[in-house]
Amino acid sequence: MPQTQKREFKAEIAQMLDLVVNSLYSKKEIFLRELVSNASDAIDKAKFKALTDAALAAENPEWGIEIAVDVGAGTLMVSDNGIGMDLEELERNLGTIASSGTKAFRQALKEDKGADLPELIGQFGVGFYAAFMVADKVRVVSRRRGGEGAFMWESDMTGGYTVGESERDGFGTSVMLHLRDAHKEFLDEWRIRELIKKYSDFIAYPVKFRRIDVPADEKEEDRKRREESESKALNTMTALWKRAKKDVKDEEYAEFYKHLTHDWKEPLEKIPFSGEGAVEFKALLFLPREAGMEMYMPQTKKGLSLYVRNVFIGDDMEMLLPDYLRFVKGVVDSADLPLNVSREMLQDDAVIAKIKSAVTSKILSALEDLKKKAADAKEGETPAWRTFWDSFGCILKEGIHTDYANAERLKKLVMYPSAKNPDGKLISLEEYVKDMAPGQDSIYFLCAPKIENARVAPQIEQALRHKCDVLFFCDPVDEWLSESLREFDGKKFVDIARGDVQFGTETEREAEKSANEKSAVELKPLMDAVKARLEADLAEVRLSTRLADSPCCLVATENGLSPAMERMMRAMNKSAPKEKRVLELNASHPLVEKMKGLSGAELDDAVDLLYAQALVAEGSPVPDPARFGKLLVSLMLKG
């Protein structure tokens, strides 16, 4: 009978075991990921050492990992045919928590003149002890390649551990867990398949399932079905992000995207790339074709899936992307992170910060390329860039306000409808600046709830008369972002419906100013009457430099809230103070000229109707719709 010896855990190990088992991982199911990853590492070691010692792989028919369950006995066993361990290694690697065999192995290779290192995660370090989250006893049997005999390590975590001689048919390691009653779910084949698909789908070796306690009365048909199932790997073993782009078909990318996102449409664009330098990683990112309603819901999960050397760590890792790129889907696989990294650790990890920066830059570069290609699109063809912008442009704009480092790059990507361009056409800021009128030194914009409102807004009349284009900010986020835009290519952004605005050359401006000063004297009684009538709503009544065909318009004061911002704040249940605005009159309009001769109730009615018309023109609600309706009926009857 093989001899065994009882050992006590070192004092520091006993103190840390409770932390490892109860606090290190938030999900009990992680134990299977850890054990499969360890098995994969053991095979990596064997393959690497076999490069210089062929005898180590001589008896190996095919590298692989097996998960075997015995439902009756309540045991789950993970086996590999990798490098294996002798008695000394079992004690050293399993008797000392976080004393990683892989860590020592990598250090030895580094000392060997910088030999190329295989990608290893951490053989039997802290991760091994995750098994005790679901098991009350763990038994390890291992036979080292190139060594003699098999050895065992066993512990129930309460009284140290036992080591000694054992028996094993082939080389490698088997880890048997006696599961607690509360965790017998991990004996179910469907549950194991689910976890392998989730965490270990891209492990480079086949992971197969086997049922040990096969019923004695199993029918022939059931036996054939079971054996066929057990002969197939549970994992795909293909990490697309680690293959050269030229070696991957578009159909494979599309299939992986659908598997990752559950989107039934193919991706708009794929972005495979490698991060090199201080931090090395692989990434495979996708731009979806369209945004679902969930994209705008705050509780929606977002972020990329994170892998460490093909092993799944977690999805919806929002720390890998800035929020304004939350529509991007994909995976990042880093070799510079520990397998047992937690979300809390990731949030403050310097490696993650560097990955985030590189990923962000790569996505912006891909978007810049899409935008350049759009210029070569054939007539009648919708370029990929326009498809992207229509779906995610509103979200991308947020970065101008939140990502100062990339704000200038984002400004070159944003597109807007404008007064001089037909419906449906969008222009970039670069195109706007290139087409600026002679003498124009600012970028004019107008915030409006809809493009239809913007196109008929009276505030743009003089701008168009002077051949100045006006950008229409009609997305809900545009008004909020207008404060962050400030300038582009040395040109300041000017809200055409705010403060005092003038157009044309210096000579034309002086002439208009002189004409308005003269008209202001003549129209002062009318302007005073309008101000008195609407004192509760207006901060000022003045003559306009922005009107051409309309009798009046409303504009915000230089530092006041615009009506669009007021509406947005109320929609967000924020208290918005009532802003008094400025009513501008067109001194040359016949209606203003006619109002000079009115007085009393007739003037009051005309002022109320004029103010209501200005509100309607900008898309704001009329304060007294019933009175507005009566005044319109009265006016129509007079006509």
Strand order in the largest sheet = 1-6-5-4-7-3-2-8
Count of helical segments? 21
Q: Compute the separation of the termini in Å.
A: 116 Å
What's the CATH H-level homologous superfamily of the largest domain? Histidine kinase-like ATPase, C-terminal domain
Q: Could you characterize the architecture of this molecule?
A:
The chain is built from 21 helices and 22 strands. By secondary structure, it is an alpha+beta fold. The protein has 4 domains: 227 residues, Heat Shock Protein 90; 135 residues, Ribosomal Protein S5, domain 2 (2-Layer Sandwich); 89 residues, Rossmann fold (3-Layer(aba) Sandwich), CATH 3.40.50.11260; 133 residues, Heat shock protein 90, C-terminal domain (Four Helix Bundle (Hemerythrin (Met), subunit A), Up-down Bundle), CATH 1.20.120. The radius of gyration is 36 Å and the shape is elongated. About 3% of the residues have low confidence.
